[in-house]
Amino acid sequence: MYSIGYDIGSSSVKAALVEVDTGKKIAVTHEPEGEMGMISPKISWAEQDPEVWWELVCLVTKKLLKQTGVDSAKVSGIGIAYQMHGLVVVDRKGIPLRNAIIWCDSRAVGIGNDAFKVLGAKKCGQHLLNSPANFTASKLKWVHDNEPDIYDNIHKYMLPGDYIAFKFSGDLTTTVNGLSEGTLWDYKNNAPANWLLSFYNLDPEMTPTLVDNFSTQAKLSKQGAKSSGLKSGTPITYRAGDQPNNALSLNVMKPGEVAATGGTSGVVYALTDSMQTKELERINHFAHVNHTANAPVVGKLLCINGAGIQYRWMKNNTGAESYKHMNQLADATPIGANGLCVMPFGNGSERMLGNKNIEAKILNINLNKHSQGSIYRATLEGIAFSFIYGMKFIKSDNTPLNVIRAGNDNLFRSEVFSNTIASLIGQEIEIYNTTGAIGAARAASLCHDDLIAFGERTSNNDYISSYTPQKNTDAYIEAYEKWEKELNTIMNN
Hints:
The chain is of the alpha+beta class.
């Protein structure tokens, strides 16, 4: 038997098929071939049509089954991962009333900030572990204030993954970890944060029915089966936002474990069992996939906007032939890049910098001693240093960083980048060749008590290598301290 997993991203929909008994990957595919478009009616707005997500899910499912020759009757479960913090609103027939307001849309920033000022850090910290910020609850408030005709016709609000589960099954449901993404879960009361909805003058009855994360959440309807090519009655047994799901894919399931991502943006997702935090604005907190009231597991998420995009910019604008060649030149350059510093913050305002936009900068260029290798090394170090800078806030918030696992993406393929982080934090970094869709597929056959077996399968199937801290870290520490001093100077001006 097989399970199928989906990753509903903002650029594409990915699907993976795995063997239930072994967790072995059979195939992975995606649609569209290029990138999914975004709708931006105004600057800083970002929307997508949720019906397009569903069309791509159906397309990629049929493509995957055809590619593998697997009979749909042999698919025993479905797992769904999805872009976080989005908002889908539907009427009583389940028809979307407007485009989805997705994760990178910032129209509700002011709403969340104003709410945080009124509600206070103490209440938000104890109950939400976050400020309302620009999350789903604040986006729904924006619809209430600016599109009253649409708001009056809303039957339920949903996260993107909830909508896909609905299209498969016809059931309007959500999860605790889904609600936590939207600052809609009250950790202290172990219940939906209806008080926040009331504060926003929103109807709590719009919240979908809660289902357990590792359970039969719903079953495919005849219509869902007809559209997707899967068999009617196939259970949906798992759903999670993309970052918690990425962590699960890397077998990051226990307090002290960390999942790191070095894509266009960088992410550090560290698990803790503490329900207290002093970092409500720099770091986001979400119920992890295995969180329960009796055994809390919360992910502290640090997002660094300027990560891989900085290295890609260097590649595209310096005539580099490949990332491999860039990494070779960087590796041949001394630690500290001969005094050259790169601030990789050119992808918008950074939450960990107090939502300041300081832009990307190349500092201390000496025309006589710096070369391409210096620039590439300084760029990789600058991105790595930004990870270290953000990790300090996580560590100071009562969260140990004991085990770090990362996917085999462009940045973590670089020895300069990975060795810099490993050496400065004094922890080994384990590299795995897996994806969110594969993780969702494996989770589809996972019961809450099977985490040990799940971890063993991940190690057996996906482990590639590890980066270990260098014995002599003096040069790394000196380079980081110089970089942080430059950053502080910029921040204080």
